[in-house]
Write a structure and sequence with these properties.
This protein is mainly α. The protein is 43% helix and 7% strand. It has a domain of 112 residues. The strands form four sheets. The protein has a two-stranded antiparallel sheet with strand order 1-8. Strands 2-3 form a two-stranded antiparallel ribbon. Strands 4-5 form a two-stranded antiparallel sheet. It catalyses: L-cysteinyl-[protein] + hexadecanoyl-CoA = S-hexadecanoyl-L-cysteinyl-[protein] + CoA.
Length: 283
């Protein structure tokens, strides 16, 4: 649904670059659940794949295709790490770290005997030394990498989003997709805890739309980015909000923070100055 139709592609190729092309993309993206934009405020579009980029999607120059919720391209696995395999990548790091720690721990006693001349004078003792150093070094590197990605999961960020914060309709927000530690964890590992440590895909959502702390996701009423209801029913929204899938919408229920956000939004409407509302009216 994010790919342009044949007529839209022709219109986009005929139009000169600039506002005319953006108008074509706005029409193509009017019913899509898109809340992020480029640094210039334009709709994110991939010229190589000919599609409107979903939120958190990026084009990989190595794989030469757009990757949903792209984290990075990993040369060690010769593949991109994104929505479809991020849980498997985390488990791969965890399994490898546990294995290296186990090897280093079981080899430690023989490593000590090597330095105290407690081993027979054979070539095998050099294998023991090499095995311990290799396991110890991999343990250090894997623990740092695994700890970093655990932090990313807790903040609901990708590696690309750490270096360049996502830009929403009103402003840049580095924590725009964060829903709290528990819900961030469930977005990657799912609701069934029995599958968390197993190499079984259990991530929530479809990789194309994500709940954010900036968007009111009430399926019963129209919503706008920034958690603010439109003050005019005739106002033209470039990105009308769209309800999320059932597997994602329940992440936003029964959370006091959403009530506080709504209260702050209502307070801003009657206050002296509300920057988010001002930008909404200017748009």
């Amino acid at each position: 649904q994010f790919h342009l139709s044949y007529s839209d592609k022709e219109s986009l190729e005929r139009e000169p670059r600039g506002e005319s092309q953006q108008e074509v993309l706005r029409r193509a993206a009017k019913d899509l659940p898109i809340y992020t934009r480029t640094m210039s405020g334009a709709i994110r579009y991939c010229d190589r794949c000919h599609l409107v980029k979903p939120d958190r999607c990026h084009h990989c120059s190595v794989c030469d295709k757009c990757i949903l919720k792209m984290d990075h391209h990993c040369p060690w696995v010769n593949n991109c790490v994104g929505f479809s395999n991020y849980k498997f990548f985390l488990l791969f790091l965890a399994y490898s770290l546990v294995y290296c720690l186990f090897v280093a721990a079981t080899d430690l006693q023989y490593f000590i005997k090597f330095w105290t001349n407690g081993l027979p004078d054979t070539q095998a003792k050099f294998h023991i030394m090499f095995l311990f150093f290799a396991a110890a070094m991999f343990s250090v590197s894997l623990s740092s990498l695994f700890g970093y990605h655990c932090w990313l999961v807790s903040k609901n960020k990708s590696t690309l989003e750490v270096f360049r914060a996502p830009i929403f309709r009103h402003r840049t927000d580095k924590n725009g997709f964060s829903l709290g530690f528990s819900k961030n964890l469930r977005q990657v590992f799912g609701d069934e805890k029995k599958y968390w440590l197993l190499p079984v895909f259990s991530s929530l959502g479809d990789g194309c739309s994500f709940p954010t702390c900036l968007v009111n996701q009430d399926p019963e009423q129209a919503s706008t980015p920034g958690g603010l209801n439109s003050t005019s029913k005739n106002e033209n929204h470039l990105f009308p909000a769209k309800p999320l899938r059932d597997s994602q919408s329940h992440l936003l229920t029964d959370t006091p923070s959403w009530l506080e956000t709504s209260a702050k939004a209502e307070k801003g409407k009657v206050g002296v100055n509300n920057p988010a509302l001002t930008m909404e009216n200017e748009t």
